[in-house]
Every structure is written in structure tokens, then in C-alpha cells.
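seq as requested:
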Amino acid sequence: MSKKKVFSVVLVLFLCLNNTYNIVFAEPNSSSNVSIDENVTKYKELDKKALELDAEVGKLNIEIEEINNKLEKNNSEIKNTEAEIENINKKIEDSKVEIEEREALMSQRLRSMYKSNITTDMMYYILTSENIFDLFSRIEAVSKLISVDKNIISDINDKKDSLVKDSEIIEDKQKELKTLSATIENDLSIVNQKKEEQESLLAELNEEKDAVMSIIEANEVNLVSNTISTVDSSDSISQLKDALNTLTGILPQLNSNYAISLVEESISNAKYKIDSLESAKASTSEDGSSLDVSGSNSEYLSTYSMSATAYTGHGLTALGLKPVRNPNGLSTVAVDPNVIPLGSKVFVEGYGYAIASDTGGAIKGNKIDLYFNTVADCYSFGRRTVTVHVVP
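C-alpha cells:
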């Protein structure tokens, strides 16, 4: 079996930001350790800022939603107020018509009374009455007419008083409407300002995310390129299975859609080639012995005794990958790039296989930091000495 290609890829693409967030690539000088560390620090600072901007956008969305709810409530109150004003106006118009009709009727009666002398009419009623009952009946009729006129006058005065009250009500409603309109205008101004701020923040966030993703994509493609090349060129079942295990383990850690598509395509290709080679091998085997398809290699590129600590958290690693803990696949560990190159595949006894994709300020020399999913797991692991094998 030919020796497999070394999986580890010394990545030379790091994020270098100036004050205007222009992106450049670090010079591929292995001796520039300080420059590499500075670029990694800036990379992580950018990731932190992106998370902070994302949180700020979330707060703005909540605030805008609250303002929109307030606007909706105010608009509903304005509609109700306008409906009340419309009803009051109709009531006032109806009152005016009724007052005009009653004033016309009263005027007609008054004119009729002025045209005829009431005293003369009374003498006429006495002289022409057939009997005392007829006289009382005529006098009662006159009294009723006078009472009706008094009621008409009273009703007119009541309507006038009601009209005054309705006028006061409508004036109050108009004031309320103006106040609500002012509130609406102020809220609209706030919403527009918040939207402008949100759009500005989103634009900045998207710009920075695009910049980050371009670096992440380059790093991830470089990280898997050797393994994909092995799948494309190798006819060794053992090498293909080792490459398949590596790609399957690293797939959940990838962020770039392009890198993910490359790995998924290579995984499919590796499975197809393995099936084809195993079928061909089985058909030509004379003794029927099983193939060595363990996908493992007894040789290691190097072996170290290291002081191991544990860490957890979110964000991205120095290579722009998502940190993971997968005991049955590939986990994430932080190393000193001067000892173990970033991108190397390692086997940590008592921990499992991992990708050296992260660094740390305290991780210098023969020290390694193992990623765990919870703080409790970190405390449980503590600090211990482990054997680390760099796997080809």
C-alpha cells in the first residue's frame, strides 16, 4: 500500500483587516508567527462583531414591532374617533332640521294669534256656545294650543342646549384627533429612523459576513482539497475509506455552501469507487479472504505527549470552522501551529479523532485544548497529559 497523502494542510489564508475592513491575505511565511496570531485575533474579533451586530438587529426588530403595534392601536383609535365625529355631525344636522321645523310651526301659530284678538275670540266663544259644556270645550282647546306652544318653545331650548353640548363634544374629539395625529407622526418618524438604522446595520453586517465567508470558503476548500484529491486519484480501498471517514467527519463543521457541495460530491464519489473496487476485488479473489478495509493506518506522521485542557463556546475557529465535539467522528482541537500545523488530522488518546483547526493564546508548545459541548464536560475533563498522534 502506498503511503497516503498527508491530510494536514498548512493554511496560508488568514483574514487581515485594516480600518476600512479591506481584506488581504497573509504572506505564506512560516516564520511570521506573530503576524499569523495577529490575523487570527482580528478574524475572531470580526466574528465577535458580526454576532454583536446580529444581536443589535434583533433588538431593533423587536423595537420596530412594538412601534408598529402602537401605530396600529392609534390608527384604530383615530378611526373610532372619526366615526364618533361623523355620528355627532349627523346628530347636529338632524337637530338643526328639527329646530327649524318647530320654529316654523311656532311662528305660524304666533302669527295666527297676532292676527286675531284673543279677547275677541273668547267673547265670540261665549256668545256662540250652545251650552256651558260647549264653552268649556272651546276654552280647553285654546288652552291646549297655548300649552303646545309652550312645549314647542321648551323643546327648542332643549335642542339648543343639546346642540351646544354636542358642539363641545365634537371640539374635544377634534382635539383628541389632533393629538393622536401628532403621536402617529412622531411614531412614524421613529419607525423610519429605526428602519434606516437597521438597514445600515444590516448592510454593514452583510458586507462583513461576505468578507468573512470568502475567507472561510477559501480555508475550508483548502482544508479538504487534499482529501478530495485522494478520492479523485486513488484506487486504494484503504485510502478511499480513510478519505471517506475524514470527509464525513469534517462535513458538519463546514460553513461554506460551496465547500459543503464539494465534500458531498466527493463523499458520493468515494462511496461509488469503494463499491466498484470491492466488487471487482471480490470477483477476482481466489481465496475469498476479506479485504483490509478498516480505513486505518498503523503509521503516524508524528507523536507527542501533551498537556491537555478543555474549552467550550460558540463562534468560529481560527480556520473559520464551527467547533464540534463528535466522539464517533472528527472533533475540534486547538494547537500551537508551530508544533502541529493547522488543518492536521490528529488522534488524541482518550478523546478520539479531531481536526487541529483552532489556536489559543495559552496554547504554546506541547499543549492542546480539546473542545467539549458543555462546561460540565470541560470541568469533568480537567487537565491531564495525553498522547497525540498526527494522522496521515
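Confidence is low (pLDDT under 50) at residues 1-37, 286-297.
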